[in-house]
Every structure is written in structure tokens, then in C-alpha cells.
Amino acid sequence: MRSACLASALLHGLATAAPDPGPTPDPVPDPSSLTVIPERASAGIGQDLYLEVVLNGNPTRKIAHFMRDGERLRASAATLRELGFRLKGREGDASLDLREIAGTSFRYDEERQRVEIDAPADQLDQATSVLNATVAVVPEPQASPGALLNYDLYGTRDQHDALGLSAFAELRLFNAWGVLSTTALSRVTDSPGSGWGADSMRLDTTFSHSFVDRALTLRIGDAVSGNLSWTRATRFGGIQLQRNFALQPDLVTFPVPAFYGQATLPSTVDLYINGLKQYSSPVPAGPFQLNTVPIVNGNGQAQVVITDAMGRQNTLDFSFYTANQLLRSGLSDFSFEAGYVRKGYGVTSFSYAHDPAASGSWRYGLTDWLTVESHAEASAGLANAGAGAVLGVGRAGIVNLALAGSRDHGDDGTQAQLGYTWRNDHFNFSLDSTRTFGGYRDVAAAFGRAPPRRSDRALAGVMLGRAGSLGVSYVEQRYPGEERTRFASGYYFLALGRRCSFSLSANQNLDDHRDRSVFAGLTFSFDDNRSLGLSAQHDANGNTVVVDANRPINPDGGYGWRVRAEDGSNGHGGQAEVGYRAEQVQLLAGIENRDDETRAYADAAGALVFMDGQLFASRRIDDAFAVVSANGVGGLPVLLENRPIGTTDARGDLLVTPLNAYQRNKLSIDPMQLPADVRIDRVDAQVTPSDRAGMLVRFGVETVRAASIVLHDANGKPLPVGSLVSLAGKPASATAVGYDGVVYLEGLADHNTLAVQTPTGTCSVGFDYRAPAHTVPVIGPLACTGSPR
């Protein structure tokens, strides 16, 4: 929530005139950078002076007209107003002695022809300096034509020779217009006595295009409708226009505190959030506004420390509350869609409702403490609409409320919601309750379960520092025609040093005392990312003990493994698994036994990318990526954000994954690792790909046919320094000879003739060139013959 805190204590504390600091070592300003204030009225009688003005230690870059009469310095009221003085109660353009303005003092620097004026802040109208202002820079994303296939192949075989195979696939076609994607799942089974069986189903097919500058995404095909905290989403096929803040990752969507203060002298402002320094900046004399993005979500404490040019400090303490449920003032969020509701998702491929449906959700930051919401949806015989609000109540937390109504074929109903949330670094609490009355229905109810009659939720948690953390929760739900369900749960977590932790949780059905579960676990961490877990669980079926040791696969590549053993009333068994993540694929294989039933399984997941006429194999790609092209030069090291990411292959290409969509990603080639016979147009590139698409990045790498030629004259002496050498047929390529008769030439052919212009005449020489690998050869010495004089 925005906090407008005027630092009146700072204003009075720093308003007294500062002692004369003496001459400052500031350089003499460039006269062209100064503005002359036009003389609008006489300043009085005395010596005419045109002086550069320094106000409260800040160069104004202005020259003003003054009249000096002994120790007095006068200026017209118009001039003083131009400099920023308020001059309350003084009308017209009569001249004023600077000493007549309360609390004002001055120092006339005759040598520099300037006047240094110190005035209290309440006598000035100064522009507010905005610190840490966010500048929304939206880079233009790019996408090159290409195709991508993500795949996940999974197979099992049990001790009875029953075989199961499944394949998930995602095909994407992309270019600058957008991304067309489709997903499908296929399964094959072979059971003794039943034979082979197979089925396949399409999941989603969607074309999407994003308008980055407006943070909008248009989808055509299968999608999920937008929803609010008090509405339900549905799968549909049709068209959707939706606000997408992910297109502008630097955009802060929720209100953040702004701290206001006043500095009488040039100062330094330091901001601390919960004791941690977050920002520091110089600020000129005058009012300032400090914008910041706190590192907390909830209640926090801020300190603004102001150190003036004299070394004096003033500290201001502020409390604030931030909540990402609120929208920043003037910001809107929405989703509008129309189409046909999807039925039997994951079961059938093309099953949609017969009647069309439409829905829309909209949120707007009316102020920094109030966000209003609305939602409407309709289908055949059904209409539903409602409104809500999210309200920030100072540092007391967030209140959300909503009211909606519906009519389903003449049957009316209503829904009401009320919630409250508060949190800080040590405690969090939330309470949420939703009720429906009458025949309340929404579009989702026409194809599935009706909304619950009652849905209540309460959560509370506390951080105890070294003593750990604990929390409790309560959930109650009641659906039409069903019995209510109520559950209470709690957890406790304690870190026992850096390598060990303990956790305890319990869950109780309040309507069935026998439905209870208790879990206790102890986890040990070791080097090389290995861990060991010991756990015990009690539920209605009895007790179970589990031992689990594992080393997860590193996301950057490598191997991992897991060994697990379980014994108790819920069954007994074990599992052993090993995996490996390479650049081209991730493999997993294992065997598990449970209650004397054994099953082996294997999995392979990865991606195939077709771009720039090449096919690349890769790990699964869920975000953006790039293909780096070195124009056929292989073995070049490529860096992502200055971190080695791979080397170009024999074709001079490298697939780089993953990149951050809609953000600048730095790709570069280490020039120190380039072969001697390679030239490159640029060594780094800032690329901004669109999401789920790839872009081609060319670095302009070129292999050059070059050599260092040693040239001598007919007497075996090196040609003079500065002699001009050119390849026959290329006179524009003339190059000067260096010391010892050496000249460096590029663009050589298999046979070359050189024409040389020496200070005493001309000569020529011919030679053959055979390009060695990754080096620049030295050829010669060669005798340059001709008729030098």
C-alpha cells in the first residue's frame, strides 16, 4: 500500500541556515549551459551584478540580475520567484533585500561572480526529486521461423510380462506472427490373455499472438478461461483476449510504498527495509520522493536515513504494508473469451458443448488501496454476473469481498464471499468464506460439479526463529446433496543445524474421528547434493516407516539416483532408480516392488528443434531458446550471461536453452578463444525472444585466407617500411610493409601476384597459398623483382 509520509521532523530539523562552508572547489561552469533570467523590473539602486546562483548548495544553472549596495544584495520579486522563492504576502515586482526573507543568508563570491544563497525549505517552491523511479523499457521480442517437438516416452513391464507404453508430444510451429501448438497423448498396452490395445487423444491446439507493448495475448483454439478468486475457470475452444503481465517482466503490478521527505542541503538518502539496505542515492536540496519495491509481501518496517553535506544525519521510520492482491492505481487486468466449453478433456479429443458460452473478468486499481473486480459469463439459458473488491486497510491487512448472482433457466441464486489476510516476517493469517444461496450456478456447473454451498478456510502460521515454524489450518466444504467435510491440520518444521531438519504434520477429519493421519520426518543433507530421509506415518490403516536416499539430477546435466524402502500396514516394498541428463535427452530407469509385485520402468524425455535448415536434439524446452550460428565455423565457445553454455558444432551452430522470454539475454563468443584465421563482426548480442519460440542469432563469423608475407628485394634485403603492397586485380587493398619486410594480407587465392610500390620504384612477386587449419602462415622471404631505381 502506498504510504505518503511527509517528513515534517526533517523539515524543521534541517531548515536552520547552515554555517558558511567556505569556497567550494566546483569547476567553472560552461557559459553555454547557463540560463539568463530576463530582467523584468528594477532591483533598486547600487552596483549592477549578473551572478550565477547556487541555492542551498545546488547549482541552478541560472544567471540573475542583482543590485549590490554595501552588505545588501537586492533582486526583483520576479527574479526571486524565478529562482523558486514563494514570497508569500508580497505582490508585484518590487525589489527585495535577500536578508528580508526570513531565515535566508547569502555569500557573494566576487572571484567567480556567483552568489550562494541558503534559504529554509518553507520559503521555496522546489521541484520534487524522484528517486529510484522505474523506467518501463519494453524490448521488442523476436522469433525466427522454426518447429519444435517436445516428447516424453514412458514404458513399463511387470513380472507377468504386461507391457505399457505411453508417449506425450507437443508440437510447436512458430515465427514472428506467433506460436501454433498442439499436444497429444498416446498409449499402447499388451497384457497376457488380453492382447494389444492402443488409444490416442488430442489435448490442446492453440494459436497465440502477443502484443508486447500493450501486455495483451490473443489465443485462438483451446484455452482456459480467466477467473477471479470467487469464480471458477473452464476449458473451452474459441477465442480469448487476455492481459498478460508476463510480457513485461519488469512491470510492478501492485502498489509499492513511496516515501516523501525534504532536504535543505545536498544530501545522501539511504533506504533500509527490515534492517537491510536496499537503496542509496544522492539528492539535491529540496523535496524528494523515494520509490521502492520492498522485498516483503505484507507488513514491513522502513528507515530512510538522510545525510546532508555537513555530515548531519536524520533518520525517519515508516511502517508499510504491501500486497500483490492489489493492483497499482490506474492499472487494469482482464480476460475476455467466447467459444464452446470443452467436455471430457483427457478422455476424448474433440468433445465440445453444443451451445456457445462467453465470459469476462476485469480488475482495476481504482486507488493504491482499492482494487475493484467484476465478472460475467453466459451460456444457453444461463447468465451469471458479479462484482467484488480488494481493500487495503492500512497496516491492518487486506479485505476481499464479492457478491454474484445467476439465473439458470429461471432458477435464481446468489454467491457471497468475504476474506481477510494479514502477514509480516513472523506471522501470517488468512480467513476466507464463500456461500451460495438458492440455485446459484455458473458455466462450469453445466458440465461438472455445482459450486459448493459452503466453503470456509482459515490459515495461521508463525515463524519462531531458531525454534522453527508452525502453522494450523481449517477447511470446511459442503456441496449440494452431499455431507459436509471438515478438516483441521497443523505442521511444525525445525532446522537442526545446516544439514538436518525435522518436520511434523497432522490432519484430522472433524466429522470422523477415525480419519486421522500423523507424519514425522527427519532429513539429512550431505555433500554432492545427496540427502537421506527417515519418516514415519500413522493413519487409519496403521503405521508405515520409509527410508529414502537420493541425489537429484542436476538441472545443468549429470546423473542422479534414488533408493527407497517402505514397510508397514499400508504395504511393503522398495524402489531403485537412476537417471542421467545430457544435452540432448534426459533418461530415467528403475525398478520397484510393492507387496511382492515387481515392475520395471524407463523414461526418455527431450526435444527436437528444426531451425535454419538444421535439426537439433535437446532436453525438453518449455521456455524460449536460440540457435547461435557461426557461419560454419565449429568449435567456438558460446557464453550465456558470461557463463559458458557450449561450443558450436561442426556445422557452426549451437542450440542454447533456456532463455528468458521477453527479457534481454546476453549471448556472446569469447574472442580470446577464436582461431587466428577467424574474423567476427560482433562478439556479443542482446536477444529478446518471445515465449515458447526460438530465434536465430548470427554472429557474422568468417574464416579468412590470410598470411604474413616476408618480402625482400633483389639483393635479399627487406623491402623498406611503408612500401605499398596490393594484390593483382585489387588495387584498393594496398597495405603498407612493416619492419623486416613483413606485410599482412587477407583474401588470398590459391595463386597470388603482388604489386609493390617502393620509394625507389616498383616490383612484383607471385606465390601459391595453401590454407592451413586455424592458423595464419608466414610465407617467404620472397624476392620482389622488377626495375627499382
Essential attributes:
789 residues; mainly beta; Ubiquitin-like (UB roll); Immunoglobulin-like; 24-stranded antiparallel beta barrel; seven-stranded mixed beta sheet; 2 helices; 56 strands; disordered N terminus; FimD_plug_dom; Fimb_usher; signal; fimbrial usher porin activity; Outer membrane usher protein
Write the layout of secondary structure elements.
Layout: H1 8-14, E1 35-36, E2 47-55, E3 58-69, E4 72-76, H2 77-83, E5 95-97, E6 105-109, E7 114-118, E8 129-131, E9 146-158, E10 163-175, E11 178-191, E12 195-211, E13 216-224, E14 235-243, E15 258-263, E16 267-273, E17 276-283, E18 286-291, E19 299-308, E20 313-321, E21 332-342, E22 352-367, E23 370-379, E24 382-392, E25 398-408, E26 411-423, E27 427-438, E28 454-463, E29 469-478, E30 485-495, E31 500-509, E32 516-525, E33 531-539, E34 542-551, E35 558-568, E36 573-581, E37 585-594, E38 597-611, E39 614-618, E40 624-629, E41 637-640, E42 643-647, E43 653-659, E44 665-669, E45 678-680, E46 684-687, E47 694-698, E48 701-703, E49 706-712, E50 724-727, E51 730-736, E52 742-746, E53 751-758, E54 761-768, E55 778-783, E56 785-786
Parallel strand pairs: 1-3, 2-7, 8-18, 40-47, 49-55
Antiparallel strand pairs: 2-3, 3-4, 4-5, 6-7, 9-10, 9-38, 10-11, 11-12, 12-13, 13-14, 14-21, 15-18, 16-17, 16-19, 19-20, 21-22, 22-23, 23-24, 24-25, 25-26, 26-27, 27-28, 28-29, 29-30, 30-31, 31-32, 32-33, 33-34, 34-35, 35-36, 36-37, 37-38, 38-39, 40-43, 41-42, 41-44, 44-46, 45-48, 49-52, 50-51, ...
